[in-house]
Amino acid sequence: MQQADHSEEHAATSSSAAPAGTALHAIDRASITGVVLAGGRGTRMGGLDKGLQLYGDMPLAQHALRRLQPQVGPTLINANRNLAQYQSFAVPVVADTVPDFAGPLAGFITAMENCQTPYLMTVPCDTPRFPTDLVPRLALAMAQHHADIAMASALETQADGTPAWFRQPVFCLLKVALLPSLRAFVLDGGRKIGAWTAQQHTVQVQFDEPGAFANVNTLAQLQTLQT
Question: Which pLDDT value is given to residue 45?
Fold first, then answer.
């Protein structure tokens, strides 16, 4: 589970209409490259390649890719092993250019380096039910707030049973022009997505669909998600 966000700063609902009097410059789908992040070690799966584990009859990463493709222009997969299997999904596969499995931000950097569009949408390989209108809702909020990054936020239940909004930092729509800032952050030892996005003009977009951002870290969680 991600960190609960009790701040209302830069929060946005997922409404489909621009505020009255706002000059809205829409972000065209074709100007957004989508990347499925599948470059992790799979530590909590005993070292298995998480993106290649089956969800239904399809690998998790391929499921995420198919869910993402109708929402963006070009697509990529970020992976660091079993590259031939990922290449069978018929999209470019790019490996981390930052060494030592530096986490999701290494995948962000690699995708931005290989991106030919001004915007990048990142999704993890382990969340097969993310909203089918995720990208347009993030793009609308980014345009409305003139933001550099739009990040998803999900309504989830805390340990005490109360609901709270939790940031979903791997679900980001961001400007590729932020690459120099991100490179500097990672080279300085930064690894937390939220710590870097806090340095940028970031808007959080609230999604209240139950279970849409349920992710898989273990084989037991994968089994539960499929039942």
Answer: 81
How far, in Å, CA of 168 to CA of 152, rounded?
5
Question: b/e string for 71-91 if b means 16 or more Cβ within 10 A?
Answer: bbbbbbbbbbeeeebbeebeb
pLDDT 10s digits, 196-210: 999 999 999 999 988
Strand 163-175 with 75-79, pairing: unpaired
Are residues 196 and 202 in contact, defined by beta-carbon separation less than 8 angstroms? no
Three-class SS state of 151: strand
Beta strands in 125-197 (DSSP E): 149-157, 163-175
What is the extent of the structural domain holding 185? 28-225
160 within some domain? yes
Domain assignment present for 120:
yes
CATH code (residue 98): 3.90.550.10
15 within some domain:
no
Q: List, for residues 127-148, the tens digit of each pLDDT value.
A: 999 999 999 999 999 999 999 9
Q: Name residue, tokens 């084989």.
A: 219
Q: Are strands 75-79 and 32-38 parallel, antiparallel or unpaired?
A: parallel
Rounded to an integer, what distance in angstroms lies between the CA atom of residue 85 and that of residue 80?
A: 11
β partners of residue 93: 77
Establish if 2 belongs to a structural domain: no
Contact 205, 141 (CB under 8 A): yes
* Domain count across the chain: 1
Cα 85 from chain centre: 22
